[in-house]
Amino acid sequence: MDYLADESRVFDHAFMRSPIGMALLKPGGGWWLKVNTAFCGMLGCSEEELEQYNKGFPSYEKVIAHLPAPDSVYETERLAVCKGGGHIRLSLQYIWAEPGQAASCIILYARVIGGGIIDDPFPPGGDAHLPSQRLGTMQVMTDRAEMERQLRESEQRYNGQAIEINTTNIPIIMDDEVVGVYGISRDITERTRYVEQIEKLGNEYTLILNAVTEGLFGLDRYGKVTFINPAGAYMLDFEYDDILGLSCRELIHQTSLDGIDYLPEEAPLMKAIHSGVSHQGKEAVLWRRDGTSFLASYQVTPLFDKGEYVGALVVFRDITDEREIIRAKESAEKADQAKSEFLAVMSHELRTPMNGIMGMTDLLAQTELNEEQRSYTEIISQSSGALLSILNEILDFSKIEAGKMTLAHDPFALREVLESVTELFSAKAKEKNLGLIWEIGSEVPDIIIGDAARLRQVLVNLVSNAVKFTEGGKVSIEVKAESRPSPGIPALSFRVKDTGIGIPAEKQPLLFQSFSQLHPAINRKYGGTGLGLAICKKLIELMGGAIGVESAPGQGSVFYFTLPEEASNEDGETGETGAEEALPANRDNFGRDEPALLPKYGPMHILIAEDHPVNQKLLRTILRKRGYEADVAENGEEAVKAVINGRYDIVFMDIHMPVMSGLTAAVHIRDLLPEEQLPYIVAVTAYARREDREICLAASIKDFVSKPFLSSEIDRILLTRRDAVSL
């Protein structure tokens, strides 16, 4: 054991055999006084070869500037060159060997960090893309105050508290004989706690990343994949273990939306990763490992640590299904537009022959007929009116289903609406010996705000059903003011009551369903499309109300609905002319005028621009009976020529004609003639939508007649023109 007295040999042995890289820095401008085997092993060289690898380490003079006090500790990191090529990142710790003595040696402790040798420490693209990274650059990790704080905490822990240590036992061999053992112990309490916290946080972050449905992957400063979540690996068709360490170029393959391949460095996603700035891509075609592609949106976010670029985070999401939904939505919108256009065309095609039937029937009824002929005429008139009613119901229903129905928001007299409804059915009620009355409570205002035409349509439908299904007794309409239970908004309550056949309770839910009939026998007896009440329900709901029924077999029925006193609907169209408007309750309103020798409304020159022979004859006959012989143009081009070559007071212009449409003709006439010579152009069309009227007004068309029209509409136009001329 005499060997133990030679302390210098023992400590020299401990120094050389220590598993921790150690070196002694000597004063006087040099670097190494002594290095141990572990230190040389980190760099892969011998002690003799170390001199050529020491230039990146700070010299003695530079280190002492960071060790102002005897107990100072200087910690830093460096990127060291290895003998076999490549680089290794080291954590360095410098302390005084003999504190308090001038020109004392400095001890260096070194350990490897970062996982081993790095083949290429500099990322692709050079220094232009990332912060400068040069061999031998040092970074101070802990200042003096921080180190002193840690030492004070260590001293407190040693005062009777349990700590965790790491001990390395090394045999002492002298002259090939083990003469003892020395141990190197380190306090790893803080490191253990730190590692535990990191593991806890890492586990929590892993759970979060695994739960995210978007794909996420991280890249280091060299473009290598450091992590990826399961969603990202699944979308790219990779196994998790196959991705880590891959270059982003191996992971991501992007093409343009039209299928053209990008050069590796020209792909927008790759350019964003290398640029070191945030970038968002809304649509990108990415490819999976199996050769299939998907549409994705992505976000690239650069990562910085204390101002130094350390990598990037890429978040991407498969939007293929969303794009398909958008395309389906666009397709549905196109289909809806096609449906609307089809309905408009059908409206035109159906109303045009209906105009001829109803107009000619009206003219026929104004001639001298015997009793049998008049009976036939009335049957034709009733049948055409019923057909027009069905047409209006189908068009209204389609418009409501497509969300195209808009409501007016105008003041109107409620009493006038009720009077017109009862007057319409008074003849039918009298024929069946039914009482038909209406009653308005004293608290109901005379003028209310809403859509009079749609309210009238609902009441007409309900009263029509009541009269149809009642064989004796009476039908009544009651209107009262009431407040809604919540939130106390003033409302009007409408009740249409009859003493008819009644409705079983189990059948009542079918009443407001589209195309539903209570029983085939009832349908055969009373007719109907099964749309009337469904349309009523939808109209009432559009006006902000609700509708219901109370009924029992043999005890009659009560259909009731409520509406706010002032509906909040935006201004809109008041709808197409219904059958009840096209067919007057009393034909005597039209009179039986014989052809007049003199113009009924004063001298006028009239042009009819119409391609349909029946409508031409109908208009000419109506005008002839009022003392006017009208000229005829069969298309828009002929109409323009006629107006330019002659002075006309009124032009009845069909909107849809061959060669040139009525709208185009009206615009040409407006552009070719001075304002004082422009005729009073009246649009004659089967289209009855509000937008059609607006288009006509924009083309300088002054008035609008919707097919099918009756003599009264022509009288209104002639009277309006006469009054305008007289002014």
Brief overview, please?
By secondary structure, the protein is an alpha+beta fold. The protein is 38% helix and 25% strand.
Strand content: 15-25%
Runs in which pLDDT lies below 50 for 5 or more consecutive residues are 1-5, 120-148, 567-596
First-residue to last-residue Cα separation: 139 Å
CATH architecture of the domain at 406-564: 2-Layer Sandwich
Largest sheet: 6 strands, antiparallel
Radius of gyration: 48 Å
Q: Which bin fits the share of residues in helices?
A: 25-40%
Number of separate helices: 21
Strand order of the largest sheet: 2-1-5-4-3-6
Strands, total number: 26
Question: CATH homologous superfamily of the domain at 406-564 - what is it?
Answer: Histidine kinase-like ATPase, C-terminal domain
Q: Which geometry do the CA atoms define?
A: elongated
Q: Mean pLDDT across all residues, rounded?
A: 77
CATH class category label of the domain at 406-564: Alpha Beta
Query: Helix/strand/pairing class, anyone?
Result: alpha+beta
Briefly note the CATH topology name of the domain at 406-564. Answer: Heat Shock Protein 90
Descriptive overview:
It is a single chain. With 727 residues, this protein is α+β, with helices and mostly antiparallel strands. Among the domains are: 7-119, Beta-Lactamase, CATH 3.30.450; 327-399, Helix Hairpins, CATH 1.10.287.130; 406-564, Heat Shock Protein 90 (2-Layer Sandwich), CATH 3.30.565; 606-726, Rossmann fold, CATH 3.40.50.2300. 38% of the residues lie in helices and 25% in strands. It is built from 21 helices and 26 strands. A hairpin with a 5-residue loop joins strand 12 and strand 13 (293-305). Helix 11 (371-401) crosses helix 15. It is elongated, with a radius of gyration of 48 Å. It starts with 6 loop residues before the first helix and ends with a helix. Its EC number is 2.7.13.3.
